[in-house]
Amino acid sequence: MKCWVINKSKAKKILLDNVKNVIPSDVMFLAQDIELPEIAEDEALIKVNSAGLNFNSVWSAKCHPVDPFSLVNGHVRRNKGDKKHIQDYFIPGSDASGTIVKIGLNKKFKEGDEVVIHCAVIDSKDLNMKDPMLSKTQSVWGYETNFGSFSEFSIVKISQLLKKPKNLHYTLSGSYMLTLGTAYRMIVTKNGGKLNKGETCLIWGASGGLGVFAIQLVNSLGAIPICVVSTKEKADYCKKFGGKHFIILNELENKKFLVDDKFNMKMWLEFSSKIKNIIGSDKVDMVFEHIGMETMALGIYLLRRGGRVVTCAASSGYEAKIDIRYIWMEMKKIIGSHFCNINEAEEANDLITNGLIKHEPNKIIDFKDIPKGLDEMNSRKSLGKIAVKIN
Ligand code: NDP
């Protein structure tokens, strides 16, 4: 079987040499002869038809902040039955659609069914928890577990299977679930920020994979998205997904979030005056956050009393400095959110099936170009989602 892999020896070298600025195409290797292990009774073997690129594969290739082999070891420590994931190779990729080739015990799906795969790997004993994402067994497929989607075949838990929307061509159906599901939980459900009609939501990185779904979800609730992007070109791209209000970072007079490791108050004030020009108030109800170190403190500052920052990532670094006075004095909340549980994934998938949220990847690339596509994400040049044709 053909698949893109990260080899254990290469990952070790990156860690030992403490290589900075490594790019995915330097690390990933096209393997031709890997044989997948047998599936267990709670698993399915999938012929992958299409996949999607996500930023977590950039982290895997960079071995930062944690290399994929250590993450897989962590998964196996929490899931003793999953030892087969420990291999000398790691196949990344956390989004796919495909066809079931072989399936364990279940009543819902059968061999030959076309499916979309969501990335929440959870032990079957915890699937009935109120929020299975809180299970200690939970891992992200193709990031913390092996046998991800950059491959002709993949192994997934049966509980990761969703019906493929009939209205979406199979080339497109493998590239929305991870970011749509994440944005759905962050914005819509009570496990995230549960945005209400009429509220305002500041969306960082609005032209990215999370952002294009965040804009649509905020609009669908009758709330108001304020999109933050670095360039006018990215703002124009957001308009395709319903973005109307923009803060364009390279057009600000004060461009730096931090100066000498201190908050750049000039920038914060310029930022809030831009928000005031848009909505008539310099404070928002919710912040959709995933940039981390550079933006967390500003996001907290920009909230109204009792507002919430919902965060799922830290692309610019995770050791953020914040001024906690704003949190208690103005009773603001920081809510952590991570992908979504199975009910939320089904609800988000239904939005695509019913045509309420559109999925239009900015690019469709060939299997051979996966590492180059990840390089593009790494350099912050990509727009929206990148879909990959596999089989
Ligand atoms: P994309 O690369 O598609 O988009 C991110 C956008 O953020 C970029 O387009 C860029 O836009 C902006 N950005 C601002 N500062 C930085 C920075 N320092 N580095 C990189 N991007 C920056 O990524 P996604 O939207 O798919 O994902 C964003 C983050 O969220 C990633 O770290 C990803 O791993 C994480 N994530 C976490 C999930 C979870 O479940 N916990 C699920 C999905 C994603 P601009 O240049 O215009 O500012």
Alpha carbon gap, first and last residue: 12 Å
Overall, the morphology is globular
- What is the C-alpha radius of gyration, as a whole number of Å? 21 Å
Helical proportion, percent range = 25-40%
β content, as a range? Answer: 15-25%
Number of helices: 12
- Which small compounds were modeled alongside the protein? NADPH dihydro-nicotinamide-adenine-dinucleotide phosphate
The low-pLDDT segments are none
Give a description of the structure.
This protein is of the alpha/beta class and 391 residues long. The protein contains twelve helices and 20 strands. It has helices at residues 8-16, 24-27, 55-62, 68-78, 177-187, 209-220, 232-239, 265-279, 296-301, 325-329, 342-353, 370-378, and strands at 3-7, 29-31, 43-52, 89-90, 96-103, 114-117, 120-121, 139-140, 153-157, 161-163, 200-203, 224-229, 245-248, 258-259, 262-263, 284-289, 303-311, 333-336, 363-366, 386-389. The strands form five sheets. Strands 3, 5, 6, 9, 10, 19 and 20 form a seven-stranded mixed beta sheet that branches. Helix 5 crosses helix 6 and helix 5 (177-187) crosses helix 11. It is globular, with a radius of gyration of 21 Å. The chain starts with a strand and ends with a strand. The structure holds NADPH dihydro-nicotinamide-adenine-dinucleotide phosphate.
Layout of helices and strands:
Layout: E1 3-7, H1 8-16, H2 24-27, E2 29-31, E3 43-52, H3 55-62, H4 68-78, E4 89-90, E5 96-103, E6 114-117, E7 120-121, E8 139-140, E9 153-157, E10 161-163, H5 177-187, E11 200-203, H6 209-220, E12 224-229, H7 232-239, E13 245-248, E14 258-259, E15 262-263, H8 265-279, E16 284-289, H9 296-301, E17 303-311, H10 325-329, E18 333-336, H11 342-353, E19 363-366, H12 370-378, E20 386-389
Parallel strand pairs: 11-12, 11-16, 12-13, 16-17, 17-18, 19-20
Antiparallel strand pairs: 1-2, 1-4, 3-5, 3-9, 3-20, 5-6, 6-10, 7-8, 14-15
Helix pairs in contact: 5-6, 5-11
Bound molecules: NADPH dihydro-nicotinamide-adenine-dinucleotide phosphate.
